[in-house]
Amino acid sequence: MSLKNCYNFEDFRKLAKKKLPYPIFHYIDGGADDESTLKRNTESFNDCDLVPNILASVGKPDLSTTLFGRKIDMPIFLSPAAMQRLYHYEGDMASARAADKFGTFYSMSSMGNNTIEEVSNISSGPKLFQLYVHKDRSISDDLIERSRRSGFDAMCLTVDTLVAGNRERDHRSGFTTPPKLTLKSLMSFIMRPEWVFNYLTHKKFELSNVAKKTDKGTNIAKSVMEYINEQYDPTMSWKDAEYCVKKWNGPFALKGVMSVEDAKRAIDIGCTAIMISNHGGRQLDGSRSPFDQVKAISDAVGDKLEIILDGGVRRGTHVLKALAAGAKACSFGKMFLFSLAAGGQKGVEKLLQNMQDEIRRNMVLMGCKNLKEIDSSKIIYRK
Amino acid sequence: MNLKDCHNFSDFRKLAKKKLPSPIFHYIDGAADDEITYARNTSAFDDVDLVPNVLRGVEDVDLSTTIFGKKLDLPFYLAPTALQRLFHYDGERAVGKAAQKFKTMFGVSALATVSVEEISSMIDTPKMFQFYFHKDRGLNDSCLERAKAAKFDVMALTVDTITGGNRERDLRTGFTSPPKLTLASLFSFAVKPMWGINYLTKGKFELPHLQDYVKEGTDTNTSIGNYFSTMLDQSMNWKDAEKLCSQWGGHFALKGVMSVEDAKRAVDIGCTGIMVSNHGGRQLDGSRSPFDQLAEIVDAVGDKLDVICEGGIHRGTHMLKALSLGAKACSGGRLYLYALAAGGQAGVERAIEKYKTELVRDMKLMGCTKISDLNRDNLRFRR
Prior knowledge:
heterodimer; A: alpha/beta; TIM Barrel; 8-stranded parallel β-sheet; B: 383 residues; two-stranded antiparallel sheet; 16 helices; 12 strands; 44% helix; 13% strand; globular
């Protein structure tokens, strides 16, 4: 199996599984508790059907839209994801370059392995920075300041990670960062010498953006959950979010909004967007899926905020359904991380190409010339 | 396993799988993307239940129905499908003779492997010609004229193949026409020697309606998806359809209508029928199933043109449900293609006989003696 045989999510996932030591694969692949929300995120798209129009003389449909004040070439982008160098030695540089090439947003996690400055040096494309509010406020202030100086277009604040989710696969595999070698996981590393070789021979693994401010995540073997519980401020409030919005003073999203009420409050504190997300089913298992919730939120605040659907998207048709239900764009983490693991920058490019082809093909089959035509008349929910 | 062990759809499918080289089997069996729509086309029937009436005196059941001004002995017909001689060396000849024997209609595809002239000299029961709108207007005119000269009764314009669907099974098997032999597919051809012998000895494989105009389908390898995407005119619009309709001057249907709005426009341009169809789930995955959409369309236009429910039908009871909702007739491709592959004309006859037997039995159990006895009082939707 190789990159050129990767036609869909499952193909990239399989190839990633072959290439990654298993604790790392399962860190991407897993969700919280019984993973029922993880599963529902994708399944929810199947409770709704597309209704195409015929003889619409579509030609080549226009997939472009605007998001966070920038024009993007298609209504999808890469969600922020931590520690990308664990998946491929090119890490964030690969995903940033691939996104730039396809004219859409790359997102940088506070827990990235490259610095804000490094990425802005190699990409002039649209860039989103993802912020966590740390107990040490000077860390958050520093990240905002540097993102501004480096020309990032927008900022998002993750609000669904006040405490770490119960990711049981990680408990079992002993996933820590950097990876802790137990006897059992050692085998899976030995079986993937290419990964180990690249990991050891390229730039040292560290949480580059926060390395100077904290020694956590650098020289101490620490699970991501422990890091979250130790570093992030669980008392974060609407006031703290508002502080970040004001400090950034540009396009700003809350990432992880799920209730209509909270979506309305996001407007009140000055947000320009929200990402409807349950963190890819990795935090609160049993919580509602983004697609199940997007219509209610869009009906309430769709004219005042940009709504991004984050979670469960695997197909071009999922994107079209999300847009028809009121989203402005969709983002995904797992899917592009598998493609990154499968083939670095080339892998992510292949994925983005597949998705672009799918969206374009499906627009033609739907009889839609541009994204504006994908409205609520194009879907019917099964009762 | 042989033909006499085939009692239902899935038996024919199994036998076809045994007889066909795998790329060819999967070309019939597969659908777009994740095949969600393909599965829904059939499972949609399970969301509604039949409510029988008793003590009605049901010795003699009349299954006949009239569509496109023609009386058929059965309320279903064999939908036009491409490339039938790939599935059995008799191809359209077998299907046409079987249809004639049961006095029902059968459709001949523009991508048929036997010419309209030959079919017309052989079959005198009602015939439908299925038309693709090509970029090459000379080819379009030639198809239309030849079908008219051959006294075909109905013209059906396919409107859901503006671009090729994403049939991932074909991408993996390397399905092209004529079949392209890769190392992997060579093996599957080698283990099915009868298919290969018949393919090579029973007359040259050709696409008689196209061969004077295009090289695809004769001397080069092309996939069906590629054919749709490169040969068909993507700018096809309502005006073009209207022109074809009047140029044909007889019964004219649009195949692949899914929205109420489009069904109404079909009436306006002079169509006498529509096939509510998503191309057997082979084009836009995630699109609505014909049965799910049938009632709305019948309510809107059922008194102005013949509404045909096409796709997902595996059983006589499925047909009863569609007819009860107001479809004038049902049709399907896989409905008889597996049977064709399983046993040529005898296979198709056996399949029709089975469906007919089911229909007669089910009508009696429902307390109905003629198709017009069926109505929505016979149905209860769960939910």
